[in-house]
User: What shape does this take?
Amino acid sequence: MQKNNNKLRSLLILGGWTTLLLASLVQGAEIRSPDRKIVFSIDVSAGGVPTYSVWYREEPVVGESRLGLRFAEHLGLDAGLRVTAERIRNEDTKWDQPWGERREVRDFYNELLVTFESTDDTPRHFNVRVRVHNDGVGFRYEVPAQDYYDDLRIVDELTEFRLPLDATAWWIPAYSWNRHEFIYRETPIGDAALANTPMTVRLANGTHVSVHEAALVDYAGYVLDQRRAGVFQTNLTPWSDGIRVNTQTPFETPWRTLQISPNAVGLLNSSLILNLNEPNALGDVSWVEPGKYVGIWWAMHLGLKTWGSGDTHGATTAAAKRYIDFAADNGFDGVLIEGWNTGWDGDWFNNGSIFSFTEPYPDFDIRAVADHARSRGTRLIGHHETSGHISNYEAQMQDAFDLYESVGVRQVKTGYVADGGDLRRVDADGNTHHEWHDGQFAVDHFERVLKEAAKRRISINTHEPVKATGLRRTYPNWISREGARGQEYNAAWAVPNPPDHAVTLAYTRMLGGPMDYTPGIFDLLHQGPESEFRVQSTLMHQLALYVVLYSPIQMAADLPENYAKFPDAFQFIRDVPTDWDESVAVAGEVGDYVVFARKERGGEDWYLGAISDEQARALRVPLTFLTPGQDYIATIYRDGDNADWVTNPYDYVIEERELDNGRLLQLALAAGGGVAIRFRPGPGKEQ
Ligand code: NOJ
Ligand code: CA
Assistant: This one.
């Protein structure tokens, strides 16, 4: 890749906009990150085709790659173009998250706005806005209102990512039946065919890159389509009629993002995705409550109870009160109850059209349950499983949220169990169409749900969602989501998650935002020691997940009776917060291991979580994140010397040590193991 040194380079002027009118003198421009390590250059190649490339530390990350949009009935914005203006600007601000992995986020970038105009007889124009942060880049198309374009049907986005072929990729397949719930594949990048994002890439020189998008609003989520070796095109998830996006000018696309870091943990410490989203649109969101919950849930996944009615019905008033008492006794904030509403009987996967979201089964008294929860200082968490029938849900959505609001519910878990491409949309003529979870129809639906819920001060935890692109910043009531293979696969009905699964999630799915993984299974051998259906981790790994896999709501997923068997280990789940002032990914490698430290919101305690894949490993972790000069009492929950997820998952040690930030902590993680630590300030503080 040859950098074009003849063209006029963009100038960075501190503060305000600088406009350069370039006429035909200049083809393109480049912009650097504030630390000057990332370079984004934009150009127009032969035929007036817009292109860009990205460099990191003087080495190519994205080779010359195409930009552009094509429409069904209009001339495209893909060739016959020239650059007519560039504006440069920079920004260095801070903003606070109402809840999050850190309180304060720095938004620090240089921005380039490039205007392209057509050179043919049909005048039309658009902008590409580029923001280059120290932790990566985002760029998007902006198509202003103009004579030629009004209503538009996008049939193709031509954005490419030309990535080096000697790279390794971690990815899951797209356009497949199981949505985002696949085990990650680690392959040479050339083998990543149709891949969902975020896709994580390690270049031969050790640079790590995550390819994703931010602020997916009223548009289609894209899939990485490797059409030529190493060249991935943004394949926009289509509607059932083949059109990718229905829109009108003015519009802007989501940001196409590349998080870039010299090492694996740098990706985990990036705030790029959040920074590229719009600020909170909901105003006062003090009603959005992070916290921990239990639920009438795992028993169904184990096959001990059913969502449907009858003798095995899980969601009875009596059972709900037992769970509520358990929650209250142990300091949990909520109790999720699934299967309380009619529609679950028979084959609920295919029953989407008959779910009622307001009618309880006769053995469930929703008001009595909600009142009992509030009287015990906890709350009922609502549940809306749609089985992918969005039209049935939307027809009842107002009433459904009204009911929950009236009984004091503050959080609803929604569900969209349906094969990929099989969300049901019934049009005005009564015809049923089948849509994707990442298509524009679903994207718009999820936004409608958030807005309806927000009117009633309700937060949403979406299962089988669209991919996470940082919209929690704009809608802080989008409190969590699934969107990957969760703990549920470790139940009685699926191939369990392999020991490296959660480690890999940390470097892939989690880069999009919080995940409701539902950690904390203590009965690791629930089908007996000989069964293949088991949890492929040690008990300590389950504890560490609360720190490693960030979510402002965390479930203690197991049955209360299983926590009673290990009260000392359960203490960690009782103690661990879910809302943080600061988070630091301390060490790790993609798919191998990860060490996270997080400081509780509004307090002085730090927590550390470390998990390993199928390998046992010894780590030396610097405690530099702790406050200098402060002594800490560390309660360490670690794998025992003979722990191993296969042979000895319950061998663990809980011990206390005095530690401070000058120490190098030795951690021994078993195969499939983990370590969880709570650091409390001790008496000693230097003056
Ligand atoms: C799939 C969700 O991921 C799971 O948590 C839930 O229990 C079932 N759907 C039923 O809604
Ligand atoms: Ca699921």
Notes: The first helix runs from residue 264 to 268.
